[in-house]
Design goal:
The chain is mostly helical and about 220 residues long. It is built from 6 helices and 3 strands; from the N terminus they run αββαβαααα. Helices cover about 20% and strands about 5% of the residues. Strand 1 (about 80-85) and strand 2 form a beta hairpin. The longest helix is centred in the middle third of the chain and has 14 residues, at about 100-115. The termini are far apart.
Length: about 220
């Protein structure tokens, strides 16, 4: 047997600190969890995380290819757009996602293709209608992707829920040795056909911190 790793003073090194957003963490009773959130229908569930058949390769028709380049059904007078950076990212206010028809969705796909990332303000009405409405909305843009390593919404395995509850000790241990929990990753790049469009909805977040940062890897490659 090989000898264990020792530090200079002969003691064993500290256990590595990890903080993985994909871990289910310690389970708590459903009634306790529901009392802690305004959105109990979005609490993570692992009931649908059994075996899923692999999706056969399919021909994908990007809805952006059908859109009018002037985007007249999406870009309305009451809507405001503010670019985050010159080449990537735009903040939109004055638009309701749950009111878009199919033609406007095609134009939205085109806008996302051009700007890579779109931030929509004031969408609680859309999020409040429940996961079924959002699943139907995203299904317009392509087949759902199921991530078997994460909790999802019960009955909707295509959701990926990032949820923090009852793991404060783990978080405290992490920040005693790490200055940030920033983790860079690329969504399911191992798939033969990775998702073309992804929606991230924020239901509850701290007043400061917890920002999600996006990078344009195509621009980085250039």
């Amino acid at each position: 047997m090989a000898p264990g790793i020792q530090t200079e003073n002969g003691s064993k090194p500290d256990e590595p600190i990890s903080y993985d957003i994909n871990l289910p963490y310690k389970a708590i009773k459903a009634n306790v969890a529901q009392a802690r959130t305004e959105f109990p229908q979005y609490l993570p569930s692992w009931d649908d995380k059994g075996f899923h058949e692999e999706i056969d390769e399919f021909r994908y028709c990007d809805p952006a290819m059908r859109a009018d380049k002037n985007m007249p059904h999406l870009l309305k007078a009451e809507m405001t757009m503010t670019d985050i950076t010159p080449k990537m990212g735009t903040i939109i206010s004055g638009l309701k996602l749950d009111e878009l028809d199919d033609v406007a969705k095609d134009e939205l796909a085109l806008l996302i293709s051009l700007r890579k990332l779109i931030v929509f303000r004031d969408q609680l009405d859309f999020l409040g209608k429940g996961p079924g409405i959002q699943q139907d909305f995203m299904a317009y843009f392509g087949k759902p992707n199921i991530q078997p390593v994460t909790g999802s919404v019960k009955g909707h395995p295509g959701f990926h829920i990032i949820h923090r509850d009852d793991n404060q000790a783990e978080i405290d241990a992490f920040f005693r040795k790490k200055p940030t929990s920033c983790l860079w990753h690329q969504d399911v790049s191992y798939e033969h056909q990775p998702p073309g469009y992804v929606m991230l909805g924020i239901l509850a977040c701290p007043e400061v911190g917890g920002d999600t940062v996006f990078a344009d890897t195509c621009e980085a490659y250039k």
